[in-house]
Specification:
With 168 residues, the chain is an all-alpha fold. Helix 2 packs across helix 5, helix 3 crosses helix 5 and helix 6 runs antiparallel to helix 7. It starts with a helix and ends with a helix. The mean pLDDT is 88.
């Protein structure tokens, strides 16, 4: 694992979170979730749960860079994918709740960016060889979001009800 790119990734998120706190920008909600996910992924790599850790690290770099690009493109008013544009525009509208901000970010990043990052890092023939690591990668992401969802449920009764239904 290249320590410098991990340091840079954490630093990017810390700066984004700090800026979001100072400006009351809801984009910081997803950045915080991402920060926690990054900790989980780094721990999973350090604990050797992946069969192909170099690929997972490469996937992380490609995946993370898509998020960085989306944030920077939006902030510089450059063209951006529609899914990210929706997520970021919602953060400016004032209507979504915290959990909705998280879901918009997760939808953009996991449902859109992750598939593209995998396609950029593997050939079609390689996909079956890396399936186990891909499943573990997703489990790290999902376990973090579940933890955050349950933490938010402690202070938000509607989300608590959602969690009870979702976890059945």
């Amino acid at each position: 694992m290249n320590g410098q790119h991990w340091y840079d990734d954490f630093k990017f998120l810390e700066d984004l979170i700090t800026q979001s706190q100072q400006t009351d920008d809801p984009k910081g909600y997803f950045a915080t979730l991402y920060y926690l996910s990054l900790i989980g992924l780094q721990q999973a790599l350090e604990n050797d749960i992946f069969t192909h850790p170099q690929w997972v690290d490469k996937l992380h770099q490609t995946f993370f860079q898509r998020y960085v690009n989306a944030v920077n493109q939006f902030n510089q008013d450059q063209p951006i994918s529609k899914v990210w544009k929706i997520a970021f525009k919602a953060s400016q509208s004032g209507w979504p709740t915290v959990d909705q901000h998280l879901m918009l970010g997760m939808n953009a990043h996991i449902n859109y960016d992750l598939g593209i990052a995998v396609a950029d890092s593997l050939t079609r023939e390689q996909l079956p060889l890396f399936k186990r690591d891909f499943v573990f990668f997703n489990q790290v992401l999902l376990s973090t979001s579940k933890h955050v969802r349950h933490s938010l449920g402690q202070i938000a009764p509607p989300l608590r009800l959602f969690n009870q239904i979702w976890d059945e």
